[in-house]
Amino acid sequence: MAVEDLHGLIHFVLKSPTSLQTLFKPLQAALLRHHAPTSLYNTLIQTLSSSNSHSLSLSLYSLMLTSSSSVPDALTFPPLLKSCSRLRDLPLGRSLHCHLSSLALRSDVSISNSLISFYSRCGLLASSRQVFDGMPRHARNVVTWTSLIGAYVRHGQLESALSLFRAMLDSGIRPNRPTFLSVIPCVSDAKLADDLCRLISDEGLDGDGYLRNAVVRMYMRCGKIDYARKLFDSMEEKDLVTWSLMVDGYGRADMYFEALELFREMKVRGIFPDYVALLGLIRACVNSTMGSLAQARFVHGITVRSLLDRNVMVGTALVDLYVKRGRLRTARRLFDRMEEKSLVTWSTMISGYGMHGFGKDALDLFDRMKDLVRPDHIVFVAVLSACSHAGLIDQGWRCFYSMERDFGVVPRAEHYACMIDLLGRAGKLTEAQEFIERMPIPPDSSVWGSLLGACRIHPDEKVAEFAARSLFEMDSENSGRYILLSNVYTSLGKIKEANRIRSLMKRRGVKKTAGYSVIEVKNKTYKFLVGDETNPNSGLIYRELEKLMDRIREAGYVPNTNFALHDLEEETKERSLYVHSEKLAIVFGLMYLGPDSEIRIHKNLRVCGDCHNATKFISEVTGREILVRDSHRFHHFSGGRCSCGDYW
DNA sequence: ATAGGGTTAG
Q1: Domain A2-167 falls in which CATH fold?
Q2: Is residue A73 classed as helix, strand or coil in its secondary structure?
Q3: Which residues form the DYW domain (predicted)?
Q4: Neighbouring-strand partners of residue A603
């Protein structure tokens, strides 16, 4: 009777593991009464762990410790460690590690493999590595290698993951499906992608649907969009994920129309888009350099009609979309209407205020959020940069000091960069320099970039050179840094030095990014390059531009030739300022937009000092509202002033 | 038995 009782219970538990919740007490009693052997415990633990009943599997381990009939063995620990890693229970996992060591089970491969995965899931990459290094070479199998590769991927160390993969191949271990699934996301180089595909087919895995999805995404990431599309088209069984990742890939590649077309086509083919596919479409819209406000509203409409607008991620993406289109009040309305908000939702709205120069609103929102969610390091970047853009110096410092003290968020290089920015805008260059020297972590290019950027507003040769020395080593490909330093020299009248930097840039073969401005007129967007004459009305545009320049000169505008093309004569320099893409776009807007519409411009680079100044005057003499979004933030020009306030 | 898992907002 009693034995049947135990068998019945176990049978029931194995068939439906979740039922153990209620049956745990009788099972516990039965296991102890019948002196259940280790193998029985192992089976139960294994079943529970693989059916996501992690607490229950761990409580059977506790029970095992109290029983006299069973001692854990090599098969007991792997599922237990898995349960610990799913529960992120580091202390318990560590005690399991101690226990199994005392039972001399450390040399078991499966246990070592489980430990590698456990430590990495609990955030201790170094411990994973320690376990791996402690294993004899011959004991490491595919699982061992794959676990360690996965550990590095989880910690974002993709290069290391790739070199481990190579080391694994070198030691004669053949990769399998899980190995490829871990390695494929590390690849962002087309050559490497081809190599990997060869290996996949060598292993006879090229028919695997999951792998093929991952491969399509890999080629999108490598920039081989057309090839990815070819693979996509050749796939016979495309599921929701296949479609979604392709839509998202187009979105990341700034190919809005292709993304939209695919989104429509999937519906036609009877695959109904879920929120992930929709996120891809919204991302395409956000990224779209030629994106208009009407386009944003259109995508918003699709979202509402798909009944997916209550999803937190979708809601957040829409808030971001309106922020990026310069529609802060609409963004805020959507934000307020969201029933569920995540950390990301809050940080999107806060950084939105920051980008638009509304430091006070950013701080107010941050105050409200503090009581509801624990801010992370990204929220603090948003808050600190909002303070620096709005010149809220005291609040910025208060925030910086409280982040670690009150929220346990240890400042990273980006946070220091914000503070350097804050000091720099206030003209406290010496303090900024000293602050960098006192940093407990090594300054990165964002920190040096902030210091150099401060010299744009407060030119200082020594400080600029100090910043540039480190910067040109760390970030030598970034043309903006060279131009910035050269402009600092120019504004100090050191033309020879300025030219030296320009030629250094040429010598190093650093490519200048071509700047452009996009303007929205009647739901359509028009793109202007420097000296652009491709517009059919360019003759007219240039004549209007001349007139406008005369008007703002009368109002007090003085051209700042520091921003002119470099190797020109002084008089030509002044004229070359007129062909900056931004001025062309503004004139185009003045000519073709109704008198009440706001002029909206989107630039891929930062707005230059001369254009910024000129735009202030244009807003004054024409009485127009001008909104410029550059690579960094927004500038609202109105009545001769700009929201950013501090720019030249 | 042990590893891994394709899309996901700042």
Answers
A1: 1.25.40
A2: coil
A3: 556-648
A4: A517
Residue nearest to nucleotide B3 (CA to C1'): A143
Give, in Å, how far the C1' of B8 lies from the CA of A253.
17
Q: What does the pLDDT look like over A244-294, one tens digit per residue? A: 999 999 999 999 999 999 999 999 999 999 999 999 999 999 999 888 999
Closest nucleotide to A340 by C1' from CA? B9
CA of A355 to C1' of B9 (A): 18
- DSSP code for A184: G
Q: How does pLDDT run across A503-528, given as a tens digit for each residue?
A: 888 898 888 888 899 998 988 889 99
Question: What does the alpha-carbon distance between residue A226 and residue A220 come to, in Å, rounded to a whole number?
Answer: 8
- Protein-proximal nucleotides of chain B (any atom < 7 Å from a CB): 1-10
Which tens digits make up the pLDDT trace of A616-640? Answer: 999 999 999 999 999 889 999 999 9
Q: What is the bridge-based pairing of β-strands A626-629 and A599-603?
A: parallel
For A341 and B7, how far is CA from C1' in angstroms? 22
d(CA A121, CA A82): 10
User: How far, in Å, is the CA of A485 from the C1' of nucleotide B4?
Assistant: 49
pLDDT category of residue A392 using cuts at 50, 70 and 90: very high
**Burial of residue A326, with CB atoms counted within 10 A of its CB: 0-12 exposed, 13-18 middle, 19 or more buried:** buried
**Contacts from A254-260 at CB under 8 Å and sequence distance 24+?**
A254/A284, A254/A287, A254/A288, A254/A289, A255/A225, A255/A284, A256/A284, A256/A285, A256/A287, A256/A288, A256/A290, A256/A291, A256/A295, A259/A284, A260/A284
Q: Which residue is nearest to nucleotide B1 (CA to C1')?
A: A75
* Rg of chain A, C-alpha, whole Å: 30
DSSP letter string over A114-144? HHHHHHHHTT-HHHHHHHHHHS-GGG--HHH
Measured distance CA(A596)–CA(A606) in Å, rounded? 27
Which of the nucleotides lies closest to A376 (Cα–C1')? Answer: B10
With distances taken from each CA to the C1' atom of nucleotide B4, the closest residue turns out to be: A178
Domain ranges of chain A: 2-167, 516-642
Q: Which residue is nearest to nucleotide B8 (CA to C1')?
A: A276
Q: How far is the CA of A314 from the C1' of B7 (A)?
A: 14
Higher pLDDT, A238 or A23: A238
Q: Identify nearest nucleotide to residue A178 by CA to C1′ distance.
A: B4
Distances A235 to A195, A264, A401 between C-alpha atoms, Å: 20, 18, 54
Residue (of A632, A644, A627) closest to A585 by Cα position: A627
Query: Which nucleotide is nearest, taking the CA of residue A379 and each C1'?
Result: B10
CA of A147 vs C1' of B4, distance in Å? 8
Give, in Å, how far the C1' of B3 lies from the CA of A34. 35
Confidence of residue A574 (pLDDT cuts 50, 70, 90): confident
Phi-psi region at A375: left, alpha or beta (left = phi > 0; alpha = psi -120 to 50): beta
Q: How far is the CA of A179 from the C1' of B3 (A)?
A: 9
**Separation of CA A540 from chain center:** 43
- The reported pLDDT for the residue numbered A3 is 53
Q: pTM score, two decimals?
A: 0.89
